[in-house]
Specification:
Number of domains: 2
Number of helices: 7
Order of helices and strands: HHHEHHEEHH
Largest sheet: 3 strands, antiparallel
Helix content: 55-70%
Distance between the termini: 28 Å
CATH architecture of the largest domain: Orthogonal Bundle
CATH topology of the largest domain: Arc Repressor Mutant, subunit A
Strand content: 5-15%
Strand order of the largest sheet: 1-3-2
CATH class of the largest domain: Mainly Alpha
Oligomer: single chain
Structural class: mainly alpha
Number of strands: 3
Shape: globular
CATH superfamily of the largest domain: Winged helix-like DNA-binding domain superfamily/Winged helix DNA-binding domain
């Protein structure tokens, strides 16, 4: 966006893009954050603030819908979201301490312990004592998990192709860059 654009021009462009995304020519900002019904936002919010709220709801909805659809897509493999999340992470960082894995996945140690126990009983992972601290456990993928992860990866590629089918390669690259910027902003806020 050129630096010479005024704030009102930038807001108008975003508002028009939101209206187009909704599939309407209505560029008014009436409606709730989800795009329908009465305006539930305070009247004192300016257009830019309203669009920010709508965008936040949209990001949340897309994330929630993607998780739900992905669960359904992975269901034939017979694993839960929590299980495939652990397996996917271990495929990149095999042999992590169980406590580190809980921290990285932002889950409680007890609930992660239950997930790992179910993965262990299914033959997907094993827990072994840490060589330097016998009280700590490290989690390792089993050989049978390698085939499952390969199948998960294939399904992930198919799923993403379907989800992103309406976006060109350039649009996907732009979306990636923009979401990365949002993620970095959130990381800075969380660290402050």
């Amino acid at each position: 966006m050129p630096a010479t654009r005024t704030k009102s021009e930038r807001v108008a462009k975003v508002t028009k893009a939101i209206a187009q995304a909704r599939g309407t020519d209505d560029v008014s900002l009436a409606g709730s954050p989800r795009g329908g019904g009465a305006d539930l936002m305070p009247a004192e919010l300016d257009d830019h603030a309203r669009d920010g709220i709508r965008l936040s709801f949209l990001i949340h909805d897309v994330s929630r819908m993607r998780r739900s659809a992905y669960d359904h897509y992975m269901k034939p493999l017979g694993i839960t979201r929590a299980q495939w999340w652990v397996l996917a992470h271990l495929s990149r960082h095999d042999g992590m301490m169980q406590t580190q894995l809980a921290d990285v996945l932002e889950v409680g140690k007890a609930s992660l312990g239950d997930v790992i126990e179910s993965l262990e009983s299914g033959g997907w992972v094993s827990r072994r004592p840490d060589p330097t601290d016998k009280r700590a456990k490290r989690v390792y993928l089993s050989k049978s998990a390698q085939g499952l992860i390969k199948r998960m990866t294939q399904l992930e590629v198919e799923f993403n192709e379907r989800v992103l089918a309406d976006l060109s390669s350039d649009e996907q690259a732009t979306l990636f860059k923009l979401l990365l910027k949002v993620k970095q902003s959130i990381s800075r806020i969380a660290a402050a």
